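Student: Hello, beginner here. Can you help me understand the protein record under this note? Any guidance would be welcome.
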Amino acid sequence: MKRDILNEAQEYMKVHQKKKRWHQVVIALACVVVFCTTYVLILPAITMENSGSAQTEQEQVTNVITLIDALPDSNTVEDKLTAYEDAENDEAYEAYYQEVSLQAKTAYSYYQELSPQLQQQVTNAAKLTELEWLWTAAVYSVTNTIDVYQVNYYSQAVTTLVYGGTVGNKTSGMRFEYWIALIVEKDSSTGKLYVNTIMEAKAGVSKVDCKATTADGFVLLTLDAIDVKVNDEVRVDFDYKNTTGYSATKYGTVTVGADLSPKPAKDNTGKLTIVPGADTRDLIEVNLYDYGSNI
């Protein structure tokens, strides 16, 4: 009787071990199926993401090539400026120079946004390089008053003011590496705007994440040479918080300086010396002649 019970127990253990091994095999196969199914499902998404990224890069290159194609060549620009100069038409000279230099500078700003690998795909880059003198002519003109043409927007290579968010969110992801960025904050104790941070124009120095953190604060992006220091006071002569877009005639100006407070008028009347006026009666002689009817 005991032998039969032991035999049955052994048989049960053998069957149990077989079922346990089979259970482990089934679990392993199930894991493989889950992994393969997940991979098959996400593979199209990965492929689409990679192809989308490549398409975006290609669109960027195509856009730059199109902008450069629209530019006149350097000889054409020089000939036209010379013609205006010879005609002494200063107004037309200045208008054409401003127009074509802005056009060239805008194309160059988009070209700079490309990686070195993508820049090599710009087949007409040499044409842009020949026009470099247009946007470098005014490099040495330093100012502390900057004209603002764009607010929370970017389409032209002109000064841009960003308010209420990061530079990347407000300007479609431009990196602005070769632009100067002033992060302007508001002093809660004085109520004045001041320069909190200055970010230099340099390769690799992206301004995408720049953002003001205080009420009324903003980021100013410019290609102009500015005479500015950290903690300089800032004044804006237009309502930038209710402005969005691009203006060809500028929205207003931003002025920076160590002390922009208006100086009180001085009363110098007490220092004036009163000089008696000369008596002109003895200096004026009036002669009257009668020419009769012969006139």
In short: The longest strand covers residues 180-186. Confidence is low (pLDDT under 50) at residues 33-53. Helices lie at 2-69, 74-86, 90-113, 116-119, 125-130, 132-136, 167-170.
